[in-house]
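Exam revision sheet. Question 4 asks you to relate a sequence to its structure. Input first:
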Amino acid sequence: MAAVHCIVSRDRSYLVSNSPGELPEKLKYAGERYWKSIRLNSLLSVPYSYQDREIFVREGLVCFRGRTLLFAEVLSGKEYTGCELPEIDHLYVTAGFTGSLKRLCSSIRIREIMLDASLPVWRIRQLKEECVRLRIPVRVLSEKGACRIPL
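Answer key, C-alpha cells:
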C-alpha cells in the first residue's frame, strides 16, 4: 500500500492511499514523528473517492493544486483510452502494477514516473529501462526516499 501526503497548511493536510479501503492504522501514524516535527496540526485520511475545495480524489487519481498524480495499479489489466485524462504530472507505480508503461504512454502524456520501494529490484530495473527508452524522467523512491514536490 502506498500513500501520498498533500499539505495545504499546518492546519490542514490530506493522506491519500492507493487502496479503496480504509487506511491501516500503521500507515496513518507512520509519519507521525515527521508531521509533528514540521508542526502539522491536522491530517485528514481521505477515502478512495473524495472532493472538497482543495483536493479531488477518484479511483486512484489525485488532483491537488493544479497537479495530477495517478496510482498506476488502477490501470493494470484495463483498457485505458486516455480521453478522460490526456496528461498527468506523476504516475506512481507500486507492486500492484502489472502493465506496460509503453502502452500507457501511447494514450496519455506522463511528465514523471515515480517507482515505489514496494517494487522488486528486477521490476525497478525493468521499469527504469523502459522510462529511459520512453524519455520520461523517473524517480526511484527506494534510492532517494520519499520526495517532496513544492507547489
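Marking note for examiners. The first helix runs from residue 25 to 30.
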